[in-house]
Amino acid sequence: MVEKQRGYLVIIGGAEDKDDDCDILQRFFTLAGGRKARIVILSTASSDPHAGEQYRRIFTGFGAEDVRVLAVQNREEANQSQYNNSFSESTGIFFTGGDQLRITGILGGSTLGSALQKSYRQGAVIAGTSAGASVMSETMLIGGLDDATPSKETIRMAPGLGLLKDVVVDQHFAQRGRIGRLLAVVAHNPYILGVGIDEDTAILIDQSGEFEVSGSGTVTILDGRQVTHSNVSESSPDQPLALTDVKVHILPKNYRFNLYKRIVSMPAK
User: Fold this and answer.
1) What is the CATH code for 9-256?
2) Strand 263-265 and strand 256-258: pairing?
3) Any residues with CB less than 8 A from the CB of 265 and at least 6 apart, and which?
4) Are 90 and 64 contacting, i.e. CB atoms less than 8 angstroms apart?
5) 82 CB contacts (<8 Å, ≥6 apart)?
6) pLDDT under 70: residue ranges of the chain
7) What's the per-residue H, E or C state across the chain?
8) Degrees, nearest 5: CA angle 246-250-253
9) What is the pLDDT of residues 161-204, one digit of tens each?
10) How far apart are CA 49 and CA 235, in angstroms?
11) Backbone angles phi, psi at 210, to 5 degrees
12) Domain limits, the chain
């Protein structure tokens, strides 16, 4: 699941509140050190070089000690030696939304990508919203049919950043009717946990592999470890999938889930 590294992961389903209480962004800011936070916003997922400016203004407004935007747009730039120590003093790194393939295609195996991994191992909090959420896992969803009957054709997968093991994250989950495509992920490998995160909702994963739900929506967990039957290997690409005995959890704010033990913890009363 989550390797025993020092950093937190804050994985956001997209469209988080940026105007009112900003609950999720405030949680990231606090985990990153509050007024001592030194935050880097990576807007690589977007082709718009100004995509990170709204977040820069928000975290600066919270009172972070230092906030900067890295709008790295190609691999040539990501491999420049100046990025070897880009995050050496960073306490928080935030991925904006956009296209997750831009993140992996530009950062994967690059100088900047290696610096990111090192920073996480040394304790930085890594957050991502929308596409920046999907990219956290070892294998990520890069596309598929929303609100569709699960089938082999429902999903497209690719390697992610690998910060989260044995989990596939989907975002904008309830709003775009994505349970079918996440069920297809579980059918392909029932050991993989499917985690669907609604908009304005996040999971905050600590060093022990336990996460807490934050925000106004819910997190859907699909656990296929006890699946007793699937037709995924013999079905045709457009044939509906059969899948029996999938365990489903729906968790709102303050509920917790242990990714190692696959156990839900109720909120304290």
Assistant:
1) 3.40.50.880
2) antiparallel
3) 210, 255, 256, 257, 258
4) no
5) none
6) 1-6
7) CCCCCCCCEEEECCCCCCCCCCHHHHHHHHHCCHHHCEEEEECCCCCCCCCCHHHHHHHHHHCCCEEEEECCCCHHHHCCHHHCCCCCCCCEEEECCCCHHHHHHHHCCCHHHHHHHHHHHCCCEEEEECHHHHCCECEEEEEECCCCCCEHHHEEEEECCCCECCEEEEECCCCCCCHHHHHHHHHHCCCCEEEEECCCEEEEECCCCEEEEEECCCEEEEECCCCCEECCCCCCCCCECCEECCEEEEECCCCEEECCCCEEECCCC
8) 155
9) 999 999 999 999 999 999 999 999 999 999 999 999 999 999 99
10) 44
11) -105, 140
12) 9-256
* C-alpha distance across the termini of the chain, in Å: 29
User: What per-residue confidence (pLDDT) applies to 93?
Assistant: 98
CA distances (Å), 90 to each of 53, 95, 110, 119, in order? 18, 14, 18, 8
| pTM for this model (two decimals) | 0.96
Measure the CA–CA gap between 108 and 3, rounded to whole angstroms: 19
* Catalytic positions, written as ranges: 130, 172, 199
Residues with Cβ within 8 Å of residue 68, at least 6 apart in sequence: 39, 40, 41, 56
Quick one: tokens of 46?
């977007």
Task: Give CA–CA dist 37/267, Å, rounded.
Answer: 28
Q: Residue 210's closest CA among 264, 268, 257?
A: 257
For residue 250, which amino acid is it? Answer: I
Residue with tokens 């956001």: 12
Beta carbons of 3 and 165 less than 8 angstroms apart: yes
